[in-house]
Amino acid sequence: MKIAILPGDGIGTEIVAEAVKVLQALGLKFEMEQALVGGAAYEAHGHPLPESTLKLAKQADAILFGAVGDWKYDKLDRPLRPEQAILGLRKNLGLFANFRPAICYEELVGASSLKPELVSGLDILIIRELTGDIYFGQPRGRRTSPDGAFAGADEAFDTMRYTRPEVERIARVAFEAARKRSKRVTSVDKANVLETFQFWKDIVIEVHKDYPDVALDHMYVDNAAMQLVKEPKRFDVVVTGNMFGDILSDEASMLTGSIGMLPSASLNTQNQGLYEPSHGSAPDIAGKGIANPLATILSAAMMLRFSLNQTEAADRIEAAVKKVLAQGYRTADIYSPGTQKVSTAQMGQAVLKALS
Ligand code: NAD
Q: How do residues 237-254 score in pLDDT, each as one tens digit?
């Protein structure tokens, strides 16, 4: 089992270090190799996704990724910005299915911005299509001046586009995932206004014929955004396009209290995957040793489950995380009076201890 370790920038290095310790403590045989990505790779090699890093990622069974980005790179040409590394990895590895579970742990119910009764027991899986939609449409807008400003331009546009195979495969992923959960899928679209999403909806309905045991309903994205904060527990598996998924998954993440708790997985057709916390590089707290490493540790658990077929080890990590929360350990982002505030490293250590 070969794992590429790509910590990246900011808190990425701090949180990935803790997840690596947890993986090493499982007593399994992994080959782990680390490489630079994002701003760190730009500094060392002049590119956010150097050939050597991409090669390592392609050869690995799975990639554990921290986060990339820093405000100091905002003036760089777009292809050289740290965030391009993640788009490059998605494209080169064909990572089309993004799994974003939003689980509200009982101990953290008070940290949610919603009333406890709305989020207690919440367990939603948002599945976002990653390779199509308006983010990859043609033609795209054109910058008219070298500093990146749209000086003198009269318009900019992006086209929204999906192909039949793209919608079919993400629909299948959603129905398969639902079969392992409560057998309910909500497909989120904007079919009332956009042709692309009428097409999406029609294909989801066609694919659904192969999954009669799974219940399917459809919801417009504006209503879904509202229902997520009104009655989030009505959802189980939500499947949607690239842009709606981007927005809704961030909205769902906040239901659970902190973005520092949320793992994610991006998979290709061979179940090779990139696993990363849902948050970014958090430059505001980088280097302070206070970042929450649990989203990354839980991403490592998803990696064991989805790409490495180590269900038991994944269960052990998830149980250990529940245990440290029950024991009252909290990093600053999830701290509340009466609990014990710990650093990034102390939280990692607590999870290690809880594993045994
Ligand atoms: P962010 O997710 O990095 O931070 C948002 C807020 O959440 C900050 O206040 C931060 O301190 C806090 N936070 C994030 N993760 C945390 C953790 N583990 N523990 C405690 N607090 C945490 O988003 P941002 O500030 O908008 O972006 C910062 C940089 O990250 C930008 O350069 C952005 O492009 C990049 N980014 C990268 C990814 C990625 O690597 N996949 C994703 C999102 C943003």
A: 999 999 999 999 989 988
- Pair (112, 200) in one structural domain: yes
Percent of the chain with pLDDT over 90: 81
In this prediction, the residues of the chain whose per-residue pLDDT falls under 70 are 139-151
In the listed set 196, 229, 256, which residue is the last one of a domain according to the structure?
256
pLDDT of res. 112: 85
Final residue before a domain boundary, out of 203, 225, 256: 256
Q: Are residues 287 and 235 in the same domain?
A: no
CA terminus-to-terminus distance, the chain: 22
Residue 101 lies in a domain: no
CB 69 within 8 A of CB 38: yes
Distance 126 CA to ligand 1 centre (A): 19
pLDDT tens figures, 303-354: 999 999 999 999 999 999 999 999 999 999 999 889 999 999 999 999 999 9
Provide the CATH number for the domain around residue 185.
Answer: 3.40.718.10
Measured from the Cα of 12, ligand 1's closest atom is: 40
Domain range for residue 192? 107-256
Return the exposure string of 96-122: e unless at least 16 CB atoms fall within 10 Å of the residue's CB, then b.
bbbbbbbbbbebbbebbebeeebbeeb
Give the nearest ligand 1 atom to 11 CA. 18
